[in-house]
Write a structure and sequence with these properties.
The chain is an all-alpha fold. 61% of the residues lie in helices and 0% in strands. It folds into 2 domains: 52 residues, no CATH class; 78 residues, no CATH class.
Length: 155
């Protein structure tokens, strides 16, 4: 019921769904812990309503959370940073580059034909079939494509 409220097309309907959820919870939920959680969400309705001013935005932060969890595990495994601020910055940039160029898993590739990697999604093309070669070529060009006349990838 909470997700149904959250997926409403505008804030008026969202507010109405939350009122119905609150009423239903009072009448049907006996667990004090669960009731407290639902009421806590209902009290934060004004904060959630802000999202409806941006209809194209994601409703949750799951996509960012997944990336941050991966990054946190990596940092923990390497026992965080050693050395200078510059070396820490370079380490994080390297981690981001590999993440952006590495190929998606088979599940994502099977469900969404044509999706190869995050950078391919962004650019709409790739220089090479091998992701590591694609990264190497992109970095050697400093992020710029050379214009070749007649290249169908150039718009």
């Amino acid at each position: 019921m909470l997700w149904a409220a959250y997926k409403q097309p505008n804030k008026t309907r969202f507010q109405k769904q939350l009122r119905q959820l609150r009423k239903w919870t009072k009448e049907n939920v006996n667990s004090p812990h669960l009731r407290m959680k639902v009421f806590k969400v209902c009290r934060k309705a004004s904060k959630f309503k802000v999202a409806y001013a941006f209809p194209e935005a994601s409703r949750t932060s799951n996509e960012v959370d997944r990336l941050m969890n991966h990054q946190n595990r990596q940092l923990y495994a390497m026992q965080y940073f050693h050395g200078t601020l510059d070396s820490a910055r370079q380490s994080m940039r390297a981690m981001a580059l590999v993440w952006n160029f590495h190929p998606y898993g088979t599940k994502t590739r099977d469900e969404a034909k044509g999706r190869i990697s995050p950078v391919h999604d962004l650019n709409g093309f790739r220089y090479h079939d091998n992701w590591l070669q694609n990264l190497s070529i992109s970095m050697s060009m400093n992020g710029r494509r050379q214009v070749v006349s007649g290249d169908p990838r150039i718009r």
